[in-house]
Amino acid sequence: MSHTAHIRSHRKPRRSASSIVVRSGVAGGVLSTLAVAGAAGYANAAEAEPVTQTLELPTLTADVATQVAQSADATQQAAANYELQAERDAAAASAAKQAKADLAEARQKAEAKKKAQEKARKEAAARATRNAERTVLSASASTSASTEAASATVTGSSSATGSAAAIVSFVKSQVGRAYVSGATGPSAYDCSGLVQTAFKQVGISLPRVSQDQSTAGTQVSLSNLQPGDILYWGSAGSAYHVGVYVGDGMFVGAQNPSTGVVERPLSYDPPTGAVRVL
Question: Could you tell me which residues come within 8 angstroms of residue 123 by beta carbon, excluding any fewer than 6 positions away?
């Protein structure tokens, strides 16, 4: 045994690692506890006294609300007035346009009516003039025809021979037959149908209508008529009636539906002219 073994060491005994760890843990726990407590205290303080900021909004009074409502009504009324005015303007423009068109149409109708009246007046005046001319010409022609017919009665030949005699005999034999437009015998005739049929008796073919028969032969004077000559009324080429001179100032013709085929003196209905075919 050492002589120092029973002497205590003057140095402090070493602490074990486990003891240090325990103490460190205790200290750490204490510090943690303090930290948690501090945090909790801060949190509690925060909850106990929250920070609050209040914003004060203006309050609408009854007068302001009324003014706003009145302003809205006024705006709406103004808009309605503008719309109504626009409609009135459009209607006025449309009415003015229609009135202008109606006026133009009325003027055109009035002008057309005026022209039509003027045309009718001129035509009436022209007709009156033509009628007056016809009256004068007819009177002149009648006078001339009467004079020539009277002369024919004195100077014209009254004896018929040959073909002329046959034609005269035929037309005289048809006196009393009926007048029918377009008829050529044997029971009825019209004026040109009687003349055409009479000349067929001697083998002469004449045109069917009076206009053509009035130019079928040689024009002769009414003062130099011979039996068998064709008499016509109207102008040559446009005659409206024909008959046959039978001598002694007499003619035979299919006059009209009232008289039928008759024998009459030239003075009864003086002809305008005559043609000689034989």
Answer: none
